[in-house]
Design goal:
This protein has one domain: Jelly Rolls. Helix content is about 35%, strand content about 30%. It is built from 5 helices and 8 strands, in the order ααββββββαββαα. A hairpin with a 2-residue loop joins β4 and β5.
Length: about 130
Amino acid sequence: MNRTTQVLSALPIFTGLEERSLQAIAVLAHELSAPARTVLIREGDPATSFYVIVEGTVHVEHDGRLIRSLSAGGFVGEIGMIEGGTRTATVTCATDCELLEFGAFELGRVLATFPTIRARVETALAHRPHRDG
């Protein structure tokens, strides 16, 4: 098992997948290190990436108000990627972060190939505030 596959296997969104499936996802993921105060997503920008937090903590803000903090195992960027359009919140690294980044094509492949991951992302999507909420 390579490093990315090991990282994936430890994240709740990928729980229960076989090593072969994890390897297929690892090929699509881009490992990213971001120092504290890095803005990953800016509210109103086009949605181009989905991030899974491997290490560290991010803050999610909407209209300048803190909505939530997420840490290892959490993910951000699903609303804009799945619903299309622009970002609904700003996401900033509160600490130094290690992330896995998936572009639109890569995320589409993961969601189309692995229904369990799609279901987990859609469940989170249903419970997070959207443009109207």
